[in-house]
């Protein structure tokens, strides 16, 4: 099977019948970064996140030397391998499951965001951690790795559009309004519970993790969201969950929280666009955020998969909308999906609702099964896709020259409370 990049190139050249959500994805990321800059609108480039505007605080990637843009795939391959060999144990390369094949092949560890955060801790001897994922993952790695270690994101424009849907100013403004309704946020009721516990998904800026650390809150990932919500309900009357409404809704619904007690908070609207009465009665206040990749999955796609493959096992990520999770057989994190496929008897057919690079890789690694993506359109996480091998060669060769480029550094005043929220998550037990 060809890589996602090859499939996109073929589709754009008209050499295959497959279609892609963004023809610009076939270009080098330096080309679409440049066109966005020329238009003066910060954007996430082509693909799934096309409609999402990047906030002005999103780091801007500088133009890298022309030689990296002009180099052939083979030349980049040789240069990356040579730089890696020269650096040896001085560098560790981490790759997220959604990373493209042309880059993931150089990774020393491949995993989900939680596993990679742990991997960052496990190599204290490496002076540099090159994170082939997105910005919030690199921030987390920086907070959990040693103070002397440099965490590098090869393309600074590899953000996460969902993470950017909740910024610290909007969350603080929301908190201030909630304080007007619920009163002193540190006062406990007869059961010893405070009015609201803030819970942030791992897919959020370090500033939001810090906010949670400072306000009695916690971080969750898609693999421990239920455990974390239980932790929060032991300590609070309700939860403010950001930025992913879908993960929050799907998890709380499975725990028995009625939908009418899960209002949505739209930032920049008075009372978040909801009413005082609804907020009084709320159990989970959901932030109006979503993932552009997972939002594409639909019940119609599931119906079609079931019609074409009777007995198909449908597994979707909990970032998918609730009707999709309800129509699937199972939902779970990327790690859950990988383990479910590993454990299945040979000959199982899977329709998967998550990012295409992971789905295609699983199809290749487990030829004893039939595995396909529910979305017929080739639509990668377009921000992670910005980590082109040219950027990887540039950061590694810079390290060989003893120069650290694209370092992700979380200031200590943010990192200290953010680590509190992360450590609460690590200590929370099911
Ligand atoms: P994981 O936490 O499973 O790595 O997922 C990250 C992500 O961005 C999902 O869209
Ligand atoms: Fe963010 Fe969605 Fe990409 Fe995950 S898949 S990193 S949530 S944009």
UniProtKB/TrEMBL annotation:
Pfam families the record matches: NadA
NCBIfam families, per the entry: nadA (TIGR00550), PRK09375.2-4 (NF006883), PRK09375.2-5 (NF006884)
Entry-linked HAMAP family: NadA_type3
Cofactor note: Binds 1 [4Fe-4S] cluster per subunit.
EC annotation from Swiss-Prot or TrEMBL: 2.5.1.72
Keywords: 4Fe-4S, Cytoplasm, Iron, Iron-sulfur, Metal-binding, Pyridine nucleotide biosynthesis, Transferase
Protein name per UniProt: Quinolinate synthase
SUPFAM superfamilies named in the record: NadA-like
Role summary: Catalyzes the condensation of iminoaspartate with dihydroxyacetone phosphate to form quinolinate.
Major place of residence: cytoplasm
Source organism of the structure: Psychromicrobium lacuslunae
GO biological process: 'de novo' NAD+ biosynthetic process from L-aspartate
């Amino acid at each position: 099977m060809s890589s996602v990049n090859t499939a996109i190139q073929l589709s754009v050249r008209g050499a295959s019948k497959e279609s892609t959500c963004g023809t610009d994805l076939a270009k080098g990321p330096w080309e679409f970064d440049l066109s966005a800059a020329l238009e003066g609108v910060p954007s996430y480039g082509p693909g799934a996140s096309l409609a999402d505007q990047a906030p002005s605080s999103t780091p801007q990637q500088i133009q890298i030397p022309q030689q990296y843009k002009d180099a052939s795939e083979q030349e980049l391959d040789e240069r990356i391998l040579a730089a890696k060999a020269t650096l040896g144990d001085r560098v560790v390369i981490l790759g997220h499951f959604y990373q493209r094949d042309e880059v993931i092949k150089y990774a020393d560890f491949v995993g989900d965001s939680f596993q990679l955060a742990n991997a960052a801790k496990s190599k204290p001897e490496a002076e540099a951690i090159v994170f082939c994922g997105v910005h919030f993952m690199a921030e987390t790695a920086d907070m959990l790795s040693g103070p002397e270690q440099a965490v590098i994101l090869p393309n600074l424009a590899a953000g996460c559009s969902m993470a950017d849907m909740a910024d610290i100013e909007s969350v603080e403004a929301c908190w201030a309004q909630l304080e007007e309704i619920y009163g002193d946020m540190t006062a406990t009721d007869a059961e010893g519970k405070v009015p609201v516990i803030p819970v942030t998904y791992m897919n959020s800026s370090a500033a939001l993790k810090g906010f949670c650390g400072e306000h009695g809150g916690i971080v969750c990932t898609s693999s421990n969201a239920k455990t974390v919500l239980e932790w929060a309900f032991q300590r609070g009357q309700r939860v403010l969950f950001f930025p992913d409404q879908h993960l929050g809704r799907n998890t709380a619904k499975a725990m028995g929280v009625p939908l009418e007690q899960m209002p949505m908070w739209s930032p920049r609207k008075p009372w978040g666009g909801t009413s005082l009465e609804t907020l009084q009665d709320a159990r989970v206040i959901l932030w109006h955020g979503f993932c552009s990749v997972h939002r594409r999955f639909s019940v119609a796609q599931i119906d079609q998969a079931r019609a074409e493959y009777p007995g198909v096992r449908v597994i979707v990520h909990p970032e998918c909308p609730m009707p999709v999770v309800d129509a699937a057989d199972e939902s779970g994190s990327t790690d859950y999906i990988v383990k479910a496929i590993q454990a299945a008897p040979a000959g199982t057919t899977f329709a998967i609702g998550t990012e295409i690079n992971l789905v295609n890789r699983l199809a290749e690694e487990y030829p004893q099964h039939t595995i396909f993506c529910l979305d017929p359109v080739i639509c990668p996480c377009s921000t992670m896709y910005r980590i082109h091998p040219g950027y990887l060669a540039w950061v590694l060769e810079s390290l060989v020259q003893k120069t650290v480029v694209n370092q992700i550094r979380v200031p200590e005043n943010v990192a200290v409370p953010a680590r509190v929220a992360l450590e609460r998550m690590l200590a929370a037990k099911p």
